[in-house]
Each structure stands twice: as structure tokens, then as C-alpha cells.
């Protein structure tokens, strides 16, 4: 059993990290080992479908604040981009899952619906680049789930409690660790990636326009995908964070609680409280 990142790293000295997490899952739920892999395969299938669905087909949602974002980015990826085709395609996939979520389509909350595009986009991108097989992807997702479980136990993944840093930030940390694992990095490198990803978005507020999981959620799914991938690369390069991952998670939790309620999913602050944000909200509720 593990409750912290440091405990997970310590246990991973004896066996692969994904095996530690599987053992914990089996002990907690009684689910057979094979079923854990099956769940990951099923979840990743849902993730991939949501990450691809809007690339060429804009999804319908009310109001259509983010309709067509994914296809726009997808088309741009083939041109003279600044970040390159790979990163732009990854952002397009993150935007796709956000569109699917906003249109009431099927997504995998990882860890939440508001952050559902990050893990699918990042893992799909990394797995394609690395030539990872089905079970390697499942094992990376198991590692991501183990990181998410620690964040859940010791902090929060709720935007209403901790701001967007708790939703998209947690998703970025999970994805960063999964990418490191997929790249055969060490357990400690996974922990470093978690620290870096969370530090990069510390204090990120939750300010959905009209209270809808559309804007700025979709943009943050795209940007935090880039955060996850860059954090994984920094960890794989040997970068270390002087602040241990468990302390970064604790700090994120404290920062989230320090945020005023207006910046924790109430749509009373941030961009939701801008003149245009208020206008969108008024028009949306007047039409209902």
C-alpha cells in the first residue's frame, strides 16, 4: 500500500511501478490482475475516440463557444507551425476531447471531465513517437492512475475546491509521469515530472465562462498537454526539482484553498467576470 509519491517510489525499488499500483488496486478492490489491464485498454479506447472525433468534424454544443477549435488546430498542424506538427496535433487532440465533452459525448474523466483531453492527447502522441505497444500504454496509464490517486488522497482534483491547477494541473502531472514511464525513465524521474508539471501551473484558477466546461477549459487542456510533454522531457533529461513531489502536491492543495471562491468554478471571477464573459453568460441563460 502507498499513500504518497515517496512511498510509491520506494516500493518501486522492488518491482516495476505499474506492478506496485496493480497490487494496490487488487488489494483495495479485489479486481483480478487481468481485469486491471482490460480496464486500461477500454479506457484508452474511449480516450482515443474522443481525441480523434472532432479533428475533422466540429462538435455541436450550446452555446458553441469552442466548436471547431480542434479542426482548426488540426488543419494548421500541416503548415509552417512554430511548435511543429507533433505538438500541434497533440493540442488538436486535447481540444477534440474538450469538444466531445462539451457536446455531451463520451469521454474518460482523467481525472475530471474538465481535464479530459490532456491524458489522451499526451499518451497518444508519446506512444506514437515511441512505437509503444498496447500493454506498454496500459502500464503507462496505470502509472498515471497511481499518481492521480496520490493527488486525490493528499490534495484534490476538483476545480471547485482547488482551482484549475487541481484539474488540468493534476492531469498534466499524471500525463507527464506516464510519458516518462513509457520512455523507460526511472520511478524518480516520474516523480520529478510530477513536481515540474504541477509547479508550472501552480495557482491556475478555475473561471468557466457562464459556468460551462468550455472556455477557458479547452485552451487549458491544450496548453497543459504541452506542459506535460515538456515536463516529461525535462525529467528525462535529468532535471531535478529541489521540492519533492509530495510537498508540491501539498503546496498545490494549500494554494487552492487560498484562492477566493470567485476563482474556484463559481464563474464569478477571472475571464468569466469580464465584460464579454458576462455578456455570453447573460445571453446563454436568457435563451434557456
Description of the structure:
The protein is mainly α and 288 residues long. It has one domain. The protein has 13 helices and no strands. Helix 5 packs antiparallel against helix 6 and helix 6 crosses helix 11. The model has no long low-confidence stretch (mean pLDDT 97).
List keywords for this structure.
288 residues; mainly alpha; 13 helices; 64% helix; 0% strand
Task: Reconstruct the topology from this structure.
Layout lengths: L4 H7 L5 H13 L3 H21 L15 H8 L8 H18 L15 H13 L3 H21 L4 H4 L1 H19 L4 H14 L16 H20 L8 H14 L16 H13 L1
**Which ranges are low-confidence, i.e. pLDDT below 50, for 5 or more consecutive residues?**
none
Helix content: 55-70%
User: Count of helical segments?
Assistant: 13
Q: Strand-residue fraction?
A: under 5%
Query: What's the main sheet like?
Result: none
Radius of gyration: 18 Å
| Shape category | globular
Query: Please, how many domains?
Result: 1
Q: Mean of the pLDDT scores?
A: 97
Strand and helix order:
HHHHHHHHHHHHH
Structural class: mainly alpha
End-to-end Cα distance:
49 Å
User: Would you report the number of β strands?
Assistant: 0
